[in-house]
Amino acid sequence: MIKLLKNIKIERIGYWGIGITKSDDGKKILIKWGALPGSIVDCVIKKNKKDYLEWHITKVHEYDSKYIDGEIFCPHFFSNIDPSLGDNSSIEKHKIWCGWCKWQMISYPKQIELKQEIVEDCFRKVKEKPSFLPIVASPKEKWYRNKIEFSFWVYMAAREWIESKWNLWFHKQWEFSKIIDVDSCWLISDKANSVFEYIKKLCFESGLPTYDQKFNRWFFRHLVIREWVNTKQLMINLAVYPLDKKDEININNRENLKKIFKEDEFIKENITSFVITYNDGLADIVRWPNISTENIIGDWYIYEKLILDWIGQEKVESTFRISPFSFFQTNTHWAELLFQTAINNVLEVWEIKWKILDLYCGTGSIGIGFLKAGVWNNLIGIEIVEEAIQDANYNAEINGIKDNCKFIASPSEKVLSKNPEIENELTNIWLVIVDPPREWLHKNVIERISQLKEENNFKLLYISCNPSTMARDIELFIEKWFKVKSLQAVDMFPQTHHIETVGVLV
Questions:
Q1: Which of 62, 73, 280, 336 has a CB 3.0–4.6 Å from the CB of 40, allowing a cystine?
Q2: Per residue of the chain (506 residues), what is the pLDDT tens digit?
């Protein structure tokens, strides 16, 4: 039996846009799906854990008007707290709309204010509670993403009178098992939208079916677009299911589609690199251990530049090669602002000629950008993705600092644990950079950094996309005699709850 909770007031929201309140017995209630502070909502229970309950919003009765002051600009926007929809009975007719950027109803200044509160709230239990610098806003509120990933899917729903076997967009609001089909997104550029629309049309007209996850068969899986802001280069990565030799009809359709991709004039004019990824894994992700790839147009990679305007220095330009599966910051102008914010928080004086240890370095964008500023002499970068390390080595070469860099493809927790390949390199370190995935740092990484701190009086620059796990890690660092010098939120994704945080520990 489904359990409902009615007329619950959301006290505050935490990271990931989760509403927080308490039940009558004092148990924490976590509320997902579009929570805002002060809202009065009905919820349905999803998880009943020892320490908390997880609920999903089904209806909003009332909301705090100070959070609903923005202009909804996207026709595909969905929210059950959209004031333009009128009463809640209007929600039903919009229920298949996109729910990717959930904060459009909030003005950007109010989004910034709310994100500052969320980040500070994540650190409320840290023993030595640090003070925060003011949040840094994104240079753009729209059209800022340089990477976007769409999914192909069937959408069969008898209750909604929908029977669609060909859809390409994002997962349906509140239902991960369905993909809705729309035509444009306000978070990517006009060029990226036109390329998306064109490729989508070619795929649809090919006669090839979308992938069926239930039976692990058929063809189209994902479409990834990466468009670089400063170089104007654009990459397509089309993920499909590998060839089934028993499927004679689709064998011909596959070859015809590849021929169209190779010969089409629009593609030649607008796409720098076109890659097809063959993926037979069950997970709804582009990359899988057994994937193979094929180049259709151009090379395996494209290039982007970061232009950094250091305080008191001339602008420094760095160039980076990025492969289809290498990580690069999703908002180019924001990345430039983030790195400038980070370096200005770290440096007290210029002309420091020591070494950087860059963990989770990706293609080397942060470390190489810092080295090109002329502040440090050497860089050691560690990254688990081998393709990213190949890019990092190449990037060091094209930026003229190859002899000053060493990159290692390995999990950080392994290579830092007395690995002979790096042990003798870990001297004269002035700065350690960690920019980990959303999960917290491995305990071995925290322990090894703390040991190195005893031998090198370095600063620790922690860049995080998850302030809640960052707070836990920083508390562990504080126990190891680190002190927090500064913390500052930097907004990367306007219209969403996502936020980055930069911390400097000494």
A1: 62
A2: 567 888 888 888 888 888 888 877 778 888 877 788 888 888 888 888 878 888 888 777 887 888 888 888 887 776 554 444 344 333 333 344 676 788 888 899 999 999 999 999 899 888 777 789 999 998 889 999 999 988 887 654 445 545 556 677 666 555 556 666 777 889 999 999 999 999 999 998 888 888 777 666 778 888 999 999 999 999 999 998 887 666 666 788 888 899 999 999 999 999 999 999 998 776 667 777 777 888 999 998 999 999 887 656 678 889 999 998 888 888 898 888 888 888 777 876 555 668 899 999 999 998 998 888 777 789 999 998 888 999 999 999 999 999 999 999 988 888 777 677 677 788 888 899 998 887 778 888 999 899 888 888 889 999 998 999 999 999 999 988 899 988 999 998 999 888 999 999 98
What gap in Å lies between CA 74 and CA 377, rounded to an integer? 47
CATH number of 22's domain: 2.40.50.140
Q: Is 410 exposed, middle or buried (0-12, 13-18, 19+ CB in 10 A)?
A: middle
385: which 2 tokens?
């993705």
Two structure tokens written together for 162: 């929908």
13 vs 20: CA distance, rounded Å: 6
Distance, CA of 13 to CA of 19 (rounded, Å): 4
Q: Which of 34, 64, 97 is the last residue of a domain?
A: 97
Maximum CA extent, the chain: 67
Residues contacting residue 478 through CB under 8 Å, at least 6 positions apart: 126, 127, 128, 484
Active site residue ranges: 465
| Whole-number Å distance between alpha carbons of 11 and 35 | 10
Number of domains in the chain: 3
Q: Partners of 12 in the beta sheet?
A: 20
Q: Cβ(449)–Cβ(426) under 8 Å? A: no
Domain that holds residue 64: 4-97
What does DSSP assign to residue 495? T
**CB-count exposure of residue 25 (10 Å: 0-12, 13-18, 19+):** exposed
Whether 166 is covered by a domain: the verdict is yes
- Coil, strand or helix at 65: helix
Residue 323 lies in a domain: no
**Element holding 198 (H helix, E strand):** helix 190-205
- 298: tokens are 């151009």
